[in-house]
Automatic annotation (TrEMBL):
<feature type="short sequence motif" description="DGA/G">
    <location>
        <begin position="154"/>
        <end position="156"/>
    </location>
</feature>
<protein>
    <submittedName>
        <fullName>Patatin</fullName>
    </submittedName>
</protein>
<feature type="active site" description="Nucleophile">
    <location>
        <position position="40"/>
    </location>
</feature>
<feature type="domain" description="PNPLA">
    <location>
        <begin position="7"/>
        <end position="167"/>
    </location>
</feature>
<dbReference type="Pfam" id="PF01734">
    <property type="entry name" value="Patatin"/>
</dbReference>
<keyword id="KW-0443">Lipid metabolism</keyword>
<feature type="active site" description="Proton acceptor">
    <location>
        <position position="154"/>
    </location>
</feature>
<feature type="short sequence motif" description="GXSXG">
    <location>
        <begin position="38"/>
        <end position="42"/>
    </location>
</feature>
<dbReference type="InterPro" id="IPR016035">
    <property type="entry name" value="Acyl_Trfase/lysoPLipase"/>
</dbReference>
<dbReference type="InterPro" id="IPR002641">
    <property type="entry name" value="PNPLA_dom"/>
</dbReference>
<keyword id="KW-0442">Lipid degradation</keyword>
<feature type="region of interest" description="Disordered">
    <location>
        <begin position="318"/>
        <end position="358"/>
    </location>
</feature>
<dbReference type="InterPro" id="IPR050301">
    <property type="entry name" value="NTE"/>
</dbReference>
<keyword id="KW-0378">Hydrolase</keyword>
Length: 358
């Protein structure tokens, strides 16, 4: 019988592409995904997989270059966010249609944050795309979802690694992927990949440079497009200054960079808290230094990184399991809340009491 896995997919922007590799490696090795709980990019990847469209989504993102990503950036003048994410959601709609969460073949939870009530929102029923859109709304970057008087933003604000929704699932183990992991020193994507795949990624970067699709050029274009929106948030004194367009652009981009970097740091710290509160059976760490949250043009390498890290983690888990069986120790074949070492089955409390949303 195939081992059943409750899968927890964390936030992390472009690093969330590694979730695709995680899913591919699990299925290639005969594991059955029994449920998915996801936040932000994890909710997006998990939801697309649960809807049976991960292969099509993978094909699409692996073809995106710098300028394709730029064309997906739909700038808005809203004071609630720099981008609407409308173009991305239109593409997702073309893949999954109007499917509802309760009609998916497995339990699925997408986590968002209710800004007004200051608590988590768990989407476990209702339209899948609505849940994904709320979960990916990075505060200040992507406009929030406003529904019935509630303002919903990225779940990573309170719970970037939503392990708790998996505890009631009948599964053999819980596997969590933390895509905002902290490391003692910065680690590059090429350092983590096997040598042959690192060489392929390096060759892709050289090819992009030769074609004039350098990251620096792409970044300059993004900076120019977002400058107009962010500069509108300057105070009156700044607005009255006679400064050049380039200096305004630099100042605007530094604000976006600071928002993203601050959000990354907060999520990394919260994820450590979640892991400590309810340790998964397998934890896969994707260091936040492997790429920026907005480097969505690096899908191929990040997917391969997910596969590679998962293969290593499963190898360790299976060796430990085999040693335990040889030693004659009892093996608990199912995960339940009471198996966490608390005889009364008590669970650690989340940072805020979640509200289930339908």
């Amino acid at each position: 019988m195939k081992p059943r896995v409750s899968l927890v997919l964390g936030s992390g922007g472009a690093r969330g592409y590694a979730h695709i590799g995680v899913i591919e490696e699990l299925e290639a090795r005969g594991y059955e995904i029994a449920s998915i709980s996801g936040c932000s990019m994890g909710a997006l990847i998990g939801g697309i997989h649960a809807a049976g469209q991960l292969d099509a989504y993978r094909d699409w993102v692996c073809k995106l270059d710098y300028f394709d990503v730029l064309r997906l950036v739909d700038i808005t003048w809203s004071a609630m966010g720099a981008m609407r994410a409308g173009k991305v959601m239109t593409k997702l709609e073309s893949l999954v249609g109007d499917i509802r969460i309760e009609d998916l073949p497995m339990p699925f939870t997408a986590v968002a944050t209710d800004l007004g009530r200051q608590r988590e929102v768990w989407f476990q029923s209702g339209p899948l795309l609505r849940a994904i859109r709320a979960s990916i709304a990075v505060p200040g970057i992507i406009t929030p979802v406003q529904e019935n008087g509630h303002v919903l933003v990225d779940g990573g604000l309170l719970n970037p690694l939503p392990i708790i929704p998996t505890v009631s699932v009948d599964a053999d183990l819980v596997l969590a992927v933390n895509a905002t992991a902290q490391t003692p020193r910065p680690v590059t994507l090429e350092e983590l990949l096997p040598a042959d795949q690192a060489a392929q990624e390096h060759a892709r970067e050289i090819e992009r440079e030769a074609e004039g699709k350098s990251f620096s050029g792409w970044l300059k274009n993004v900076r120019t497009r977002v400058q107009g929106m962010v500069s509108s948030f300057n105070d009156e004194e700044e607005a009255s200054e006679n400064v050049s367009w380039s200096s305004q652009t630099e100042r605007a981009w530094s604000k976006l960079d600071m928002m993203l970097a601050s959000f990354d740091i907060t999520q990394a710290a919260l994820a450590k808290y979640k892991v400590a509160g309810y340790p998964p059976d397998i934890l896969i760490d994707v260091p936040k230094s492997v790429c920026g949250a907005y480097e969505f043009h690096r899908a191929e390498a990040l997917i391969e990184l997910g596969r590679y890290l998962t293969a290593q983690a499963l190898d360790r888990h299976e060796r430990q399991r085999d040693r335990t069986m040889v030693a004659g120790e009892p093996v608990d074949g199912r995960r339940h809340p009471s198996s966490s070492g608390d005889p009364q089955g008590r669970l650690p409390l989340p940072l805020s009491s979640p509200k289930r949303h339908g």
